[in-house]
Write a structure and sequence with these properties.
The protein is α/β, with parallel strands linked by helices. It has nine helices and ten strands. The chain has a six-stranded mixed sheet, with helices on both faces. A four-stranded antiparallel sheet has the order 2-1-4-5, with helices on one face. A hairpin with a 2-residue loop joins strand 4 (74-79) and strand 5. The protein binds adenosine-5'-diphosphate (ADP) and magnesium ion. Magnesium ion binds next to helix 2. This is Molybdate/tungstate import ATP-binding protein WtpC. Its EC number is 7.3.2.6.
């Protein structure tokens, strides 16, 4: 056996399974707007995977297809090996963290976090226990009964994250979640999100247009341009070896 094929065999046996497999994925809005052109992507179990690209490059559309809010025009999405193109969002093992403004402002933090569990018919006691675990994880103990409108931006972002995590998805999807926070708070939340990911041990797919966020947080980064993935790699690989002119230019741009 050649060295090369031994390496391949070794890799396929030891590398963690891909929790998400995307093949030739495409999304066209209104018959003419090509939001996602032709994307192939594999995301490994447990990784902090970032989709980085300029505004309009198709990042949100890609996330929305993974979570099932948008239907692909063509291509395949597999979660844990199963084709999910026609599976409803609530039957997928993914959960999307919405921007904090998607919380119910008059309801308390607890009511917001427990809402999804209530819809799923989880009994009171288990619901409270699961929410309590989330308040602990998110450093929100003491804020449970506050109405959302009385919480700070950072606290709301934590509640939004808790609300998405409490349903115990395998994959947590985060779309520009630090974008609304001021710089200091955004940096604090970067560290917090990394800690939370380690504690819950789940796959995170983090979407951002910020190089700084992507390069400081990610195990691997996919760089998107105009509906396509230009490069996938570890931060230092991309930094040292940009695969295209677009990537090289994008890295030169101010954050
Ligand atoms: P990003 O998140 O990277 O900014 P989007 O996925 O939001 O990119 O958008 C990609 C392209 O698709 C843009 O040209 C955008 O205007 C278009 N688009 C996004 N959502 C819709 C929609 N619901 N209907 C029509 N066009 C859309
Ligand atoms: Mg977007």
């Amino acid at each position: 056996m050649s060295t090369e094929s031994q390496t391949e065999l070794h890799d396929s046996q030891t590398s963690p399974a891909n929790v998400i497999e995307i093949r030739s994925l495409r999304k066209v809005y209104d018959d003419v707007i090509v939001a996602v052109d032709d994307v192939d992507l594999g995301v490994r179990e447990g990784e902090f995977f970032t989709i980085l690209g300029p505004s309009g490059s198709g990042k949100s559309t890609l996330l929305q297809m993974i979570t099932g809010i948008e239907t692909p025009t063509a291509g395949e999405i597999r979660l844990d090996g199963a084709l999910v193109n026609d599976v409803k969002p609530y039957n997928r093992n993914t959960s999307l963290v919405f921007q904090e403004y998607a919380l119910f402002p008059h309801m308390s933090a607890r009511e917001n976090v427990e809402y999804g569990l209530m819809l799923r018919g989880i009994p009171d006691r288990e619901r409270h226990e699961r929410a309590d675990a989330m308040f602990e994880l998110m450093n929100l103990v003491g804020k449970e009964d506050r109405p959302i409108q009385d919480l700070s931006g950072g606290e709301r972002q934590r509640v939004a994250t808790a609300r998405s995590l409490v349903v115990e998805p395998d994959v947590l999807l985060l779309d520009e979640v630090l974008g609304a926070l001021d710089e200091k708070l955004a940096r604090e939340m970067q560290v917090e999100l990394k800690r939370i990911q380690e504690e819950v041990d789940k796959t995170f797919i983090f979407v951002t247009h910020s190089q700084e966020e992507a390069f400081s947080m990610s195990d691997r980064i996919a760089i998107m341009n105009d509906g396509n993935v230009e490069q996938v790699g570890e931060p230092f690989e991309i930094y040292q070896n940009p695969a295209s002119e677009f990537v090289a230019d994008f890295l030169q741009m101010p954050n």
